[in-house]
Amino acid sequence: MQTQCTEKALVFQALGRREVIAQFDGGAVTSDGGALLLRETDRRLKLLDRFAGCFEDYRDPTQIEFTVRDLVAQRVIGLALGYEDLNDHDELRHDPLLAVVAGRVDPSGSTRLRQEDRGKALAGKSTLNRLELSVPEQAAGHRYKRIAVAGEQVDRLLVDLFVEAHEQAPEWITIDLDATDDPIHGEQEGRFFHGYYGHYCYLPLYIFCGEHLLGARLRSANIDAAAGALEEVERIVTQIRQSWPTVNIVLRADSGFCREALMAWCESQEQIHYVFGLARNARLEAELEESMGQARQQYECTQQPARVFHDFRYQTHQSWSCARRVIGKAEVLPLGPNPRFIVTNLSAHDHPGRDLYERVYCARGDMENRIKEQQLAMFADRTSAATMRANQLRLYFSSMAYALVMGLRRLGLAGTELARAQCQTIRLKLFKVGALVRTTVRKVWVSLSSAYPRAVVFAEVYRRLCTS
Fold it and tell me: Residues of the chain with pLDDT > 70: what percent?
């Protein structure tokens, strides 16, 4: 990567009799040699082409140097490599390897139209910013912001990627729903103070199935956690059922999603089930009193945490339309009692209470890891644009970066030491590889660092990705 260089040598502490001298004269060196693996992953998934197809480009093709695909690829790959900010791209545009991975035919940028752009193969922050700020209703007539995203197509693409990841239809799938806080620090549209989190934030809704992201919707924080969840679930389930008409689906979420509308919809559908947390109250705790007594006796005898499960029917006074199966966990810990409840429409015959709570419901905790990967590793929390529409597009970019890295993990890392690695670990151990890039008329030579400690793993991942 080119940089503003100093002509003077940098003299460091000597090594024995040897002087240690550094200069910025290494040539076109990148720190992201492993990004080539992302390009091979995209060759399998066709993710970037399909994501670019979700945009409508109203620009005059004779007056542009960067297609929508160029811009989308640069932004998504940049996020996957750890470059969260648009400002980063004013320096990244010099990186020939990023240009190769993004699909630019001239990775050196030597054929750019304007003299001042020569040597900059990629778009700068201002060009990418116009992509984010375009308004669909105004794009056709706007002078600069003429690229509009069709959000419903992006939503469908996320579900398509999930379905395509399976060679055959599964018998059961579990869909997790959760809301989390996305702190904001400016005067963004939709800014509200959330009492539970204690700061101004958005309240995005995430929907996962295992490690697959099925939906990411940015929302204001002045709403119920379950607001809009039914509409999102209906859309996703309908699309999944088009490919897998007989699959059994379990919705899983905490008590924030234990709402009559969502449960009643599941009960009205064929092979749609739910396991939701249920906030405790005096009536529920009274129902669990006998089991709590048994748990206390066990704890007093063993001085070890004790659990007793109680399966019963329960109906609220007003909000529920019918009585439903509730499982209470009477638990006593060294710090005291810890009663918990879940509600479900799964049968007691096929799904005993303890198994349903411990094996099914508690497994939803893994979704927290997926949200952390999305929000922290792929920078979904970089929602500093003025409008919610622009910030939703940033969330889409983050979602596609996450899907691309998950595709690499699924297709290339299975069976390796990084098979269960999270996005940040994959980035540090597999993407951050020093490399010298040389461009000739017929080839782009990428000389990866000879000192890279995971060359064997890298070669194995490459082999797996190239196997059709």
Answer: 98
At residue 231, what is the residue type? Answer: E
The residue among 346, 163, 178 whose CA lies nearest residue 237 is 163
Q: Look-up: residue for tokens 């060359």? A: 455
What integer is the mean pLDDT of 311-327?
A: 96
Residues 6+ apart with CB under 8 A from 401: 76, 77, 79, 80, 378
More confident call, 1 vs 305: 305
Structure confidence by residue, pLDDT tens digits, 3-54: 455 567 899 999 999 999 998 888 889 999 999 999 999 999 999 999 999 9
DSSP state of 358: I
3-class state of residue 181 by DSSP? coil
Q: Which residue is it, tokens 């066709």?
A: 46
Residue 309: Cβ within 10 Å count = 19
* Length reported for the chain: 468
In angstroms, rounded to a whole number, what is the distance separating the alpha carbons of residues 6 and 235?
Answer: 57
Q: What is the pLDDT of residue 146?
A: 93
Question: Is residue 7 classed exposed, middle or buried when 0-12, 13-18 and 19+ CB atoms within 10 A define those classes?
Answer: exposed
For CA atoms 35, 41, 43, 45, the dihedral sign is negative
Largest Cα separation within the chain, whole Å, is: 85
DSSP three-state, residue 4:
coil
Domains of the chain, each with CATH number or no CATH = 10-149+389-466 (no CATH), 152-377 (3.90.350.10)
28 touches 422 (CB < 8 A) = no
Nearest CA-CA partner of 189 in 396, 392, 397: 392
- Half-sphere exposure at residue 297, Cβ-oriented, CA atoms within 13 angstroms: 7
Q: Is the pLDDT of residue 101 over 90?
A: yes
Q: Which DSSP letter does residue 171 get?
A: S
397 CB contacts (<8 Å, ≥6 apart)? Answer: 72, 75, 76, 79
pLDDT tens by residue, 346-399: 999 999 999 999 999 999 999 999 999 999 999 999 999 999 999 999 999 999
Find the helix or strand (DSSP H, E) in which 313 lies: strand 306-314
Q: What is the pLDDT of residues 344-357, one digit of tens each?
A: 999 999 999 999 99
Distance CA(232)–CA(155), nearest Å, equals 10
